[in-house]
Design goal:
262 residues; Beta-Lactamase; six-stranded antiparallel sheet; 8 helices; 6 strands
Length: 262
């Protein structure tokens, strides 16, 4: 995980170079691709988070954004019709240059944003608060942000609430990635097992045609041994994971976890 110092150095490089592209953008984009989130259909999980953010902060716009190579794509959007904007214009592109929240209370006077087309143009953006969506391995995929067309203050309590909502987005993304990886690994193993069993059964059939019963028994035994080993491992993994139910992927609070431990 990157240190706080590297975060500040990264932000400084973005500003000094006059760009919204962090120095590790190639690796960051690889992380974006790994999550397979770009251009996916609307999703109720993320839509509920942006709707909740808009209500909690009483703002007209809330977005889960993913910063792509040349665009900022909106996985979820509340209060706007557009599903993406160019990367150069977006404040989210600045937000991924750092690991701290990006807060602009009055964009019309903030030197970081005063010339931005979203501020100076028709939209007339005045307030922006974005929290980076940082993966476990330290890459910013985009932001959860709230936007208003009037200046406003943003308290420490507000910031913590936005951070909590952003953490929910990241947790959901990481969970889905883990499930996809797990399914792909099991599918690969199942295909390998299928090939092994077919090979052994083919060998047994040929041995049977030649009247070699010992080779028949050995081939069948090897096929069954491979299948049994995979099934046992899957059962062990299932036991470790526990029985899955409707709430299995809901992260419990420490207090709830302690309560269930007795």
């Amino acid at each position: 995980m990157r240190s706080a110092a590297s975060s500040f150095e990264r932000e400084a490089r973005c500003r000094l170079q006059g760009t919204h592209i962090p120095s590790d953008d190639r690796q960051r984009l690889e992380a974006v691709r790994r999550f397979e989130i770009l251009d996916t259909p609307p999703d109720g999980t993320f839509d509920r988070i942006t709707a909740l953010a808009a209500r909690l902060f009483d703002v007209p716009i809330s977005i889960v954004s993913i910063v792509d190579e040349d665009r900022i794509w909106f996985k979820s959007r509340h209060g706007i019709d557009a599903d993406e904007i160019g990367r150069d214009a977006g404040l989210c592109a600045s937000a991924v240059c750092q690991f701290e929240p990006w807060i602009v209370e009055d964009a019309a006077v903030d030197p970081r944003t005063v010339s931005n087309p979203l501020v100076a143009g028709e939209l007339g953006l005045r307030f922006y608060a974005g929290v980076p969506l940082t993966t476990k391995d330290g890459y910013n995929l985009g932001t959860l942000n709230v936007i208003d067309v009037r200046p406003r203050s943003f308290s420490e309590a507000d910031l913590q609430t936005l951070k909590d909502l952003a953490a929910m987005v990241v947790h959901e993304l990481e969970l889905r990635l883990s499930i996809r990886d797990y399914v792909r690994e099991r599918r690969t193993e199942a295909m390998e097992l299928q090939d092994t069993v077919v090979q052994r059964l083919t060998a047994a059939q040929l041995a049977g045609e030649l009247g070699d019963q010992e080779r028949v028994r050995r081939a069948v035994k090897e096929g069954l041994t491979g299948a049994r080993a995979l099934v046992l491992r899957l059962l062990e993994e299932a036991e470790t994971m526990g029985e899955l139910g409707p709430g299995s992927f809901v992260r419990r609070s420490p207090a709830e976890g302690a309560g269930h431990g007795g």
